[in-house]
């Protein structure tokens, strides 16, 4: 059985009251970055997120419908989930804007939101409108907000559902049993998790 996620107050400077589960970095070349992050952190195998057709892409940028505009890969190293996002040429997105302003590097911190609607309402009540919202292929809602502090990295609320739990458990399980490290990408559709290990 999946263990419940314990909440913790992050800092006095944020209204987010959810556990950190993800670090996202913008990169220029996704394949090169995957190799580099695997060498640096041991993360992998990587799951390359399939692009949704434009008609199904529900991404908004400051309230206006706009394609996600990035090639994305996800992987675990231990209990840390890494996301790499390479903005597509000619796209206008939360990722391309960041690269134009700051270059590649740390983009956002991702927090698991078990009560997504309440967390979103809390952020809005604190005067923080989402910069970006989207819905993944698994039906998971996300909302990204401007960050505080020296890094200025964004904060992303990631809805935690049974589907997203299973996805993360499967991805983390793949990282624990990765026999051929020359194969950097994984097809999670061929994997099953009999006993999900949960998200801490």
Main attributes?
about 200 residues, alpha+beta, 2,3-Dihydroxybiphenyl 1,2-Dioxygenase, domain 1, 4 helices, 10 strands, about 25% helix
Q: Poorly predicted ranges (pLDDT <50, ≥5 residues)?
A: 1-15, 190-200
Distance between the termini: 13 Å
Order of helices and strands: EHEEEEEHEHEEEH
Total strand count, please? 10
Biggest pleated-sheet summary: 10 strands, mixed
Whole-number tally of structural domains: 1
Strand content: 25-35%
**Number of helical elements:** 4
- CATH homologous superfamily, by name? 2,3-Dihydroxybiphenyl 1,2-Dioxygenase, domain 1
Supply the helix-strand structural class.
Answer: alpha+beta
- Write down the oligomeric state: single chain
* CATH topology-level fold name: 2,3-Dihydroxybiphenyl 1,2-Dioxygenase, domain 1
CATH C-level = Alpha Beta
Helical proportion? 10-25%
Shape: globular
If you compute it from the alpha carbons, what radius of gyration comes out, rounded to the nearest whole angstrom? Answer: 16 Å
Mean pLDDT across every amino acid position: 84
User: Strand sequence of the main sheet, in spatial order?
Assistant: 2-5-6-1-7-10-9-8-3-4
Q: Specify the CATH architecture.
A: Roll
